[in-house]
Amino acid sequence: NSRCSSEKLGPLFSLQLGQRRAIVVSSMDLAKECFTVNDRAFAGRPQLEGWKRLGYNRAMFVFSPYGPYFLELRKIVANKLLSSQQLRLVKHIQVDEVGSLVQRLYRSCSNLEPVEMNHHLTWLAMNIVLRVVAGKRYFDLGGEGKEFREALGEFNNLVGTFTLSDAIPWLGWLDLSGHLQAMKRVHQKMDEVASAWLAEHRRKESSGAGEESDLMDVLIKELKDGHLSENHQTDAIIKATATV
User: Fold this and answer.
1) What is the DSSP-derived secondary structure letter of residue 229?
2) DSSP letter at 35?
3) Comparing C-alpha atoms, which of 51, 82, 25 is closest to residue 161?
4) Distance from C-alpha of 221 to C-alpha of 215, rounded to nearest angstrom
């Protein structure tokens, strides 16, 4: 394992994974040096199959190479989701969701039901994020929500998978583990949900109903002229960013 290797080879060593070379950093100080002091030098992204198939051909900015596209989308997302002003604007969402959580916990306790706090806290976080991103509630999406939850779980399991084609690209057609087919299926599920969200937001925009209220609204407005990327369609960028 990597611990034994680091004890033998030192805190920084390389591995040859097929045609790819990977660098293993097992020292906290060196990791800090890589990702804080020299973060730009390490900001490149490898062309992994999972990131391509699940990330809209790398339109998902967290999987895209460091450059104008990555920087512009990161700025939009940071301003919409993470700025102090925006956090104040969405405080009512947090209050609503915490209130809903307390009600669910109260009902469970009243019925003497066991409570899994991990489950409830996950739902709380997802409700808040989805309301800020797409104006949706993770807990109240019905059948659509169930499909999205299942697809999201599979997405998280598959996105970091290192496939045979990642190590040996010319064997990309050989899907012995079934991971590539699973990635295709999960992407289709995620895309169906994201497409429905986008269509709903575009209808709202065209009818003039409501004001800018979530990240999808902002992305539709900011990317209207299609200036951000020549490699990705605007709809793909919006869906990729909303589901990241």
Assistant:
1) -
2) I
3) 51
4) 10
Quote the CA–CA distance of 54 and 57 in Å, as a whole number.
Answer: 7
Domain 45-242 classification at class level: mainly alpha
DSSP string, 61-107: GGGSPSSHHHHHHHHHHIIIIISHHHHHHTHHHHHHHHHHHHHHHHH
Residues of the chain with CATH 1.10.630.10: 45-242
- Cα-based distances in Å from 176 to 48, 180, 181, 185, 186: 17, 9, 10, 16, 18
pLDDT-above-70 percentage for the chain: 94
* Other Cβ atoms closer than 10 A to 146: 10
Q: Which two tokens stand for residue 162?
A: 């290192």
Residue whose token pair is 């699973």: 182
Measured N-to-C along each axis, helices 234-242 and 68-77 cross at an angle, to the nearest 10 degrees, of: 50
* pLDDT tens figures, 62-91: 888 888 888 889 888 888 777 787 778 788
Going through the chain in order, the beta strands assigned E by DSSP cover: 12-17, 20-25
